[in-house]
Write a structure and sequence with these properties.
3-dehydroquinate dehydratase activity; binds 1,3,4-trihydroxy-5-OXO-cyclohexanecarboxylic acid; Shikimate_DH-bd_N; 3-phosphoshikimate 1-carboxyvinyltransferase activity; 39% helix; six-stranded mixed β-sheet; alpha/beta; DHquinase_I; shikimate 3-dehydrogenase (NADP+) activity
């Protein structure tokens, strides 16, 4: 059975992978080699996935620190007001000229904003993430004039400085239209410069970077008056930008933050959260994330937008309730957050920017931006002015780069169509609400007319909501949904009834069902939470009760699995998400054992561990791009034969269809393999590599200890990171040679000598001449005896540890946690004080499990819960 499928699936793959390889190599993973010939591919856009039938990816293009503060100080700072407004509603800065926000994916990205906002740090993070050149205005000025700005000003005076500054800014923008991140300095404050930036924003993203004013003030040591002046001047940046990014305080850099203007070398070595936040923002902006994921790993939840997945939930969150909540506690089960703007303040733009950043940081899910119209209810403004104010605030949402914006279809068609035209990568959800109980039922033609109207206006999705007190309206709502879903090429539709009686329709609705959270029910005042909403876990439980989902069995399989923390992490995550699955570790001695266990029709997936990670690869019918490149899998998933599900031929489409059915039992016809070990390693490397040791392909060297499945994943993570000089040491040299030749034939083309992995024969030899000492060390050998093999007890030769800038050491073993290598690094750190950052096995383990849970279930993992589970259970083994 397996081999039959294997043959068909593998026939389908090579071409996909060849194209994919080119795409990845040239456009994404290996960013230093972007070639013009990749343009067409890279610009391919799947944002309008409107008529998605699972399996059909539509590629039509379009017609800081504050988080850490106590909740009380946040409440003061957000200055929320309810709309008791006597006068007209005015925001604290002028409305911007709406931007169309359609950019070529390689268009240079400009960062503007006040001094101290963090532009240079973000520029640096962005350039590293996207593999682009970082151009800073100061440096460019000096390169062009031969002297610094300060010197220029002293030598030539104000007027000449001003003239030259604008001239140089224009030249800098013009000469770098693509492939760069451009950081603008103070030059962007002059009128002429802002005119030039406004013009540039028609073709390129111009991001206005903001930060809490008290942070800027203390960072730059400004007086109150100076700070107020700087802030007022800074607001003018809104008018010449088309996007806005709030640089939230990152507690991971506490005590080490220095003004970024002092240069990259002084920037905190950590900034873990900022790196993640800004990289995600850029992925959304450039559209890289979705394309890459659907091609590379079709079972990853990032491979399909939530509206194309089955049963997704949107946590309903009011802006006014955020100060009373610890957002991190709301993690669990929701695929998106619906942020309802329910309050007014002249500073609303800033408040929204901060809270959007806050949600992204704490919950990491897409945001659906919804403006409540009652915000304007008490205002004496005319109807026309209210409409204007409403769309102005939606424009603010677009500027913040939220993933979805809800627009009320009561407003004029011109306005809605204009919003659609300006929406760039943001998707527009047309919203039709029937608030009156006595309004027409779901079978009335008016709903269909609204549907057609939203479609013709270019909305990406449509949402119908109806107040009801009649239980039978749930059946008609379901019928209405079925009617639309039967239209070929239909838009994704959300439809449910409001109120106590509407709950069944919330359960049967498929996309972005609004949900609440137990914490919100307990914390926030009754008026702030819609009591009739289920929690995401309750909604999922109902799917099990109504047999829409099936309880499945998951395993952790390997030769020595007694110690594993995987069952604790996965089981806790099932409970939090309302799933009825189970997960257990089982010791197996052969691949035969594995496939015997995994043929049960209720088998959901397995974490595969040593010694089977490499061996099992040739026994799966389909594998992710990563698993193939690594040559090992750690995640095994079933492929089932479902009726009406199209051919199971190994194509990306058929795998996406399978992914959308993964919580259903059914007879298994073959298996799919993926690898999340490299994700765990890559995530931890990205977090912990200091800017001083940032990967430079021509210079950085890394060493991987071991030559098993985990060592392969480590090499792959390093290649993804841009590392081109990877050394490998293993007790049995021949195994290391195998791994090296695998990667040299796969990716050797990325180096001039065709070699990306070099084998070190002995730890008694000096570090190879002509190569820098390693700044990345990854140990992938067991710290205890496995299958009668003695523990590796590996320590680095002291001469190999001589990197003057230190580096990062990743230890994958976690039993025992304090391995000989980590003990050695601690000793070295104490004695000679180079900046070695230690990442232990307990930091990597949950990261690979989080990705694995998402592959296995198709639901967003409760990350902090899984990380906590590791910490709480680890002591069992100490
Ligand atoms: O190697 C590992 C560690 C692991 O086996 C564990 O729980 O220990 C789980 C696997 O998914 C992973 O690839």
């Amino acid at each position: 059975m397996v081999s039959g499928m294997s043959c068909r699936a593998s026939e389908g793959f090579p071409l996909q992978f060849r194209r994919l390889y080119e795409y990845i190599v040239l456009a994404c993973g290996f960013p230093y080699a972007v070639e013009p010939k990749t343009r067409v591919f890279v610009e391919f856009s799947i944002r309008r996935c409107s008529n998605f039938q699972p399996g059909l990816v539509n590629n039509t293009s379009k017609p800081d620190h504050d988080l850490h503060e106590s909740q009380s100080s946040m409440a003061v700072e957000t200055q929320l007001e309810y709309p008791s407004l006597g006068s007209s509603l005015r925001l604290d800065s002028k409305p911007q000229t709406p931007s169309i926000r359609q950019f070529p994916s390689n268009a240079s990205i400009v960062l503007i904003g006040s001094r101290g906002a963090g532009k240079r740090t973000l520029g640096f993070i962005g350039a590293t993430h996207l593999g682009r050149r970082l151009i800073t205005e100061d440096h460019y000025f000096q390169e062009t004039t031969g002297i610094s700005r300060g010197e220029f000003l002293r030598k030539y005076g104000n007027n000449e400085f001003y003239r030259r500054n604008v001239e140089i800014l224009k030249q800098m923008l013009e000469q770098h239209r693509s492939g760069c991140i451009i950081e603008c300095g103070m030059g962007s404050l002059s009128n002429q410069a802002q005119r030039a930036l406004r013009e540039y924003s028609k073709t390129n993203p111009v991001i206005y970077v903001t930060r809490a004013s008290h942070r800027i003030r203390s960072l730059l040591r400004l007086s109150e008056e100076e700070a107020a002046r700087l802030e007022a001047a800074d607001l003018s940046h809104r008018s010449c930008s088309n996007l806005e990014y709030y640089n939230l305080y990152d507690p991971s850099c506490d005590g080490t933050d220095t003004p970024p203007e002092n240069g990259i070398g002084n920037v905190s070595s950590r900034l873990k959260n900022v790196k993640e936040d800004f990289s995600n923002f850029l992925d959304f902006l450039t559209g890289q994330g979705l394309i890459r994921n659907s091609l590379e790993s079709p079972f990853s939840i990032a491979a399909l937008p939530p509206e194309c997945r089955s049963h997704t939930y949107a946590l309903s969150l009011r802006l006014s309730s955020i100060p009373d909540l610890d957002l991190a506690e709301l993690e669990a089960g929701a695929d998106a957050v619906q942020l309802k703007i329910d309050i007014w303040s002249p500073h609303l733009q800033g408040i929204m920017a901060k809270q959007v950043a806050n949600i992204r940081r704490k919950l990491g899910v897409p945001i659906i931006f919804h403006m409540e119209d009652y915000v304007f209810a008490d205002s004496p403004m005319s109807v026309v002015d209210k409409e204007h104010a409403y769309f102005e605030l939606l424009e603010c949402g677009l500027r913040l780069g939220v993933e979805y914006i809800v627009v009320d279809l009561r407003f004029s068609s011109d306005r809605v169509a204009h919003l659609v035209r300006c929406s760039g990568p943001t998707k527009i959800i047309g919203h039709h609400l029937a608030q009156e109980e006595n309004s027409w039922g779901w079978d009335d033609e008016s709903w269909m007319i609204q549907y057609q109207r939203a479609k013709s206006l270019g909305c990406d999705m449509i949402r119908f909501v109806r107040a009801t007190s009649k239980a039978r309206d749930n059946d008609t709502a379901r019928e209405f949904l079925a009617k639309i879903n039967a239209i070929p090429g239909h838009l994704p539709v959300i439809a449910y009834n409001l109120g106590e009686h509407g709950r069944p329709s919330l359960i049967s609705n498929q996309i972005f069902t609004p949900v609440t959270h137990p914490i919100m029910q307990a914390t926030v005042s009754k008026a702030q939470v819609r009591q009739f909403l289920p929690t995401a876990a309750e909604a999922v439980q109902s799917l099990y009760q109504s047999r829409i989902l099936d309880p499945l069995h998951f395993y952790h399989l390997g030769a020595s699995v007694f110690y594993s923390l995987s069952p604790a992490m996965h089981t806790a995550a099932y409970r939090v998400c309302g799933m009825e699955n189970d997960f257990q570790s089982l010791e197996v001695t052969s691949l035969g054992d594995i496939f015997r266990l995994c043929q049960d029709s209720n088998f959901g997936g397995a974490a595969i561990t040593q010694p089977f990670k490499v061996e099992i690869l040739s026994h799966v019918a389909a594998k992710s791009y990563h698993a193939k490149a690594i040559g090992a899998i750690n995640t095994l998933l079933p492929l089932r034969m479902f009726p009406n599900n199209g051919p199971l031929d190994g194509s990306i489409q058929s795998l996406l269809r399978q992914a959308n059915q993964r919580s259903r039992a059914g007879s298994i016809v073959a298996y799919y393999g993926d690898n999340t070990d490299f994700i765990g390693i890559l995530t931890c490397l990205r977090r912990n590599i200091s800017p001083r040791n940032v990967v430079q392909p021509s210079k950085t060297t890394a060493i991987v200890i071991g030559a098993g499945g985990m060592a392969r994943a480590a090499v792959y993570a390093l290649i993804q990171l841009g590392c081109r000089k990877i050394f490998m040491y293993n007790r049995t040299e021949a195994h290391a040679q195998d791994v090296a030749s695998h990667f040299n034939s796969w990716a050797g083309g990325l180096t001039s000598d065709g070699k990306i992995v070099h084998v070190l024969r002995s730890i008694h030899e000096d570090w190879p001449a002509g190569y820098r000492l390693p700044t990345i060390i990854i140990s992938c050998v067991p710290a205890r005896s496995v299958a009668n093999q003695a523990p590796a007890n590996f320590e680095m030769p002291m001469q190999w540890l001589g990197s003057p800038t230190g580096g990062v050491v990743v230890e994958l073993a976690y039993l025992p946690l304090d391995t000989p290598l980590l003990k050695q690094i601690r000793r070295v750190r104490e004695e000679t004080k180079p900046a070695w950052v230690i990442v232990d096995g307990l930091e990597v383990l949950p990261e690979q499990a989080i990705a694995q849970f998402e592959l296995m279930t198709g639901r967003k993992a409760p990350k902090s819960r899984m990380r906590l589970e590791v910490m709480q259970n680890y002591h069992r083994y100490e």
